[in-house]
Structure prediction request, 222 residues.
Amino acid sequence: MNPSHTWNLVDQYITEHLIPHDPILEQVLSNNREAELPAQDVSASQGKLLQLFIRMKNAKRILEIGTLGGYSTIWMASALPADGSLVTIEHNPHHAKVAQSNISLAQLENLVEFRIGNALEQLAQLDAEQTEPFDLIFIDADKPNNPGYLKWALRFSRPGTVIIGDNVIRNGEIINENSVDPSVNGVKEFYTLLSQESRISATAIQTVGSKGYDGFVIGIVN
Prediction:
C-alpha cells in the first residue's frame, strides 16, 4: 500500500475514534474551500492536539501568528476559560475576513482579537502597546520569517510559556543542505536559533497523516 494512502487512512481512524464530529468545524473547512483559501489548515487531530496543550497548560492568553481561515483559532479558543483571550495575526485581508466570519459562526468573538497586516509589524505594535506575556504561542505563518517570529515570541513570553511552530519538517527537506527554498531555509534558521537560545528548551516531532510528512517544534520557556 502507498505510504501516504496509509497515513490518510490512519488519520481517518484516529479522527473517527478520538475526535467527536463537530458540524461547526466541518462548516469552517467548507467555508474555507468555498472562499478558495489554501488547503493549509491543521488536521483535526492536530487541532485537537493544540487544544489539549492549552488545557494541560491551563492557558488563558494565546498568541497565534497566522490565522488563515480560523480553523486552528477555533480549536484553541474553544479551550479557553470565559475570561481568556486569543490574539491572532493574519496578513491577507481576504483570509482574515473569512476567519472573522468563521469565528462568529463558532460564537467565539468575545475571546478572539484580530490583528490584520504584516505579522512582524503587528508584533511590533503589540510590543508598543506593552502587551502582557502569553501562556501559549502558535507560530504558523510564512516560514521565511520564522526566525523573526521566534524572537518576538520569546519577547512576549515568561517562564513556562509554551511555543509551538508548525510545518518544521518540510517533507524532510530540512536536511537538504543545498535547498534554495526560502521556506525550508527559514525553518532551518528557526532550528539554529532554537539551538543557540538558552531561554527555551525545545524538541521537534515528525508527523505523517492527511497533511503529508511534516511536524511541530514544541518548546517551553525557561
